[in-house]
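Hi V.,

You were right to ask for the full record rather than a summary. Here it is.
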Amino acid sequence: MNSPVLTASEFHAIEHQLAERRYAYLNRRPKQPLIRLWDKNMQLIARIMIPESWDCEERAHDDGDAYIELVGKDNDWLREIIVFKTRPAEDLHLTIDPDPDKPHDYKNRWGGKVTRIVDVEERGKPNITTLEVIHNRRHLSKFNLAATPLLPPAVQPIKMFLWGGPAASTCAIAMMVNTIRVYSLNAFWPVPRNILAPETWLENLSILNHPVQIMPINPLLDQSRWCTIGARWKDAATVLTPVMKDCGVICHAYTWLPGDPPPYSSVFGDELGEILKPTRACVILSFENDSGVTGPTGTAVDGLLNLFAATADDLITEALFPVDGDGDGETDPLIRKILGVAPKRPPYVYRDVGYGGANRREMTIHKSQAIIINTGGRSPRWVNMAITWGIRYGLSQIASAISTIPGAPSQLTGSEGLDNLYQGQLDDTLLSFINFIDPIRSADVGPYAFQEHFETGSGSAFTINSVFTLREGWWKTRPYVSFKFDVGDGAPFVLGEDIRLGSQVVAERRGVLYRDQIMGVRRQGNRRQSSRPLLSFGDDSREEDPMAQGFAAIANVANFAAMLAGSGDMF
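Predicted structure:
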């Protein structure tokens, strides 16, 4: 059944209504946020009512931070608690709810841990206390992925932690296993963690009571791109962040407080979610697929198709059909379109207009850095072996010829063993360096171009690896254009309702649409007013070489299989 078509008058009425709503939102003075300070057990200490200044930032693939400045006698009581009544060894926590009318909106809440307190007393001036806070995403880097996570550190029969599958599920499972290791298993090894507090010995047997919890995810319905990970006691941020960047997965660190909606209802349903809600205030690390890529099946199979198609595009399409039909500087995904896993254009578009567009656009034009790419340093092994064989064979033939000279003794002293005079003196002198000259780039840049760039790779020339190294050097020195955009809240999309950190958005520049994820959200204010949040996306550099990404994907899968078979790294 077809949807009814709006008449012109109905369309204009809706358009007028939306414009009025946007006008009212933009002209409404932002309210002061709800800033609360919590003790080491996440028990409320106080609400910070009149900070001299404050700002907080949340980043997609890094740890955000916040700064709270308390000045004057109005805040002396709070300064007394923070600086003097709280021992230096005790943690302090901070939460910022942007909308004080929604104190239970944990998904839009900023939460973090106080890492540094600077208290300044100066004669004739008010006291100044500054709180430096790190976002709770920092917990991701404070868990190590153990080789054998379910056994004590002293007993590690499995040499490496290996896992694979849809990226979001892989990250969540790896973290869940290791949070259980830290909170439930390590609590009793080698002695109870709080040996002088027996009432705490059993409190973390339930994962619902862990201070840091992992958002459950159904791996069968996880459409994120498949990946493999391997770790041996490395921190989770180092291992998982490159995977998340490549697959479009964002780790959201939610600060959940008692009284907030059940966080796991989206996975288990409302009734079971109410039963399985956390039993204490906690940080919830939620790995979410924000890549904007779906697929034909709606299951994890789409992620596997995405891995295959993206790798094929990086290797085949990039080399044979590098068509950029939309002019955004990136090769169009041919194979992903055929298989139905190509990124779809998001509905949130910031147009290149005076109203409703980006607050700030930064275009960076990177000029060519070289037209000749050199690499190498060593000859291929077979070349050195051939030289060694040829010289030693020639010396041995000379020794044989000497013994056949008429009147010469049958064994002339020193003639035998002449071949040992050669000890590799001519190694790495033939086919030890290779270069590539880009004729198109050379013609474009003109006669005064920067000439050479040496790319350090495997060290050998005229090998398959040397070809990849030349390509990598060519990619690094290529000319390209990059963009960064800063957009305001409500211009025209509302943060927390339409978009959020990690959302796929599009910005227009001279008729060309550039697609990216929101990588940062920043808020700030003072004791008199609060400004609207600022959203940032784009980068001043371009992504990794697509062909390098393709070969890296193949190598990761091959190495994963090799390590499962016990043969170590292959590449």
